[in-house]
Specification:
By secondary structure, the protein is mainly alpha-helical. Helices cover 64% and strands 5% of the residues.
Length: 192
């Protein structure tokens, strides 16, 4: 239990520091673009008039396309383009349960990384004692690899996220979990 607590705390701290670094340019902004400031008010007004709640909006939306004719019509609109995925929040400051300041957001990030660190420590102490240091470290790095393939690979495939974004996520997640893996391979020894 001592190994899990120590590994969880240290692993969470490593993930948190890594995520701060990985979310800085250029890695943290890979694939992002900003709407021209002269066009931004018109774009935001269009979004505001078409979207009403905090949600992920897909355009063109397949909606309730249940017949083959409706699916063909959607496919034609999609092929013509453009296509968009918008994470929309009509009133971001109203998220009272979350708060709307940087301190709250960074605190939630910290708690998330700490929870992930503890789960990683549980995995690390559960590994076979026949695995060497580097094998355990690289095995922990596969957590980031699996998450990126499963989540960000799907976003790239289905929603058209930029390839530069996908590659940055590999660097972020695999790099972070490799660093955590180095630490946990030392602190959370199986059978120790």
């Amino acid at each position: 239990m001592k190994q899990i607590v120590l590994g969880g705390i240290l692993g969470g701290l490593v993930l948190f520091v890594w995520s701060v670094i990985a979310h800085m340019p250029p890695l943290g902004t890979a694939g992002e673009r900003v709407v021209d400031s002269a066009q931004e008010p018109a774009v935001l007004n269009a979004l505001r008039s078409a979207m009403t709640e905090r949600a992920i909006y897909m355009m063109p939306g397949s909606g309730k396309a249940t017949t083959s004719a409706e699916r063909r019509a959607w496919a034609a609109r999609y092929a013509r383009g453009p296509a968009s995925v918008v994470a929309f929040s009509p009133r971001p400051a109203d998220r009272a349960w979350l708060g709307s300041n940087f301190g709250t957001w960074i605190s939630i990030e910290f708690l998330s990384d700490m929870a992930a660190g503890f789960l990683g420590a549980i995995i690390a102490v559960s590994l076979s004692s026949t695995l060497g240091f580097w094998q355990r470290a690289f095995l922990m790095a596969t957590i980031g690899l699996i998450a990126t393939i499963d989540i960000d690979g799907s976003y790239w495939n289905w929603y058209g996220f930029p390839t530069s974004y996908l590659l940055a996520q590999f660097a972020d997640h695999v790099g972070g979990w490799f660093l955590v893996g180095l630490l946990l391979a030392r602190v959370c020894r199986p059978g120790g």
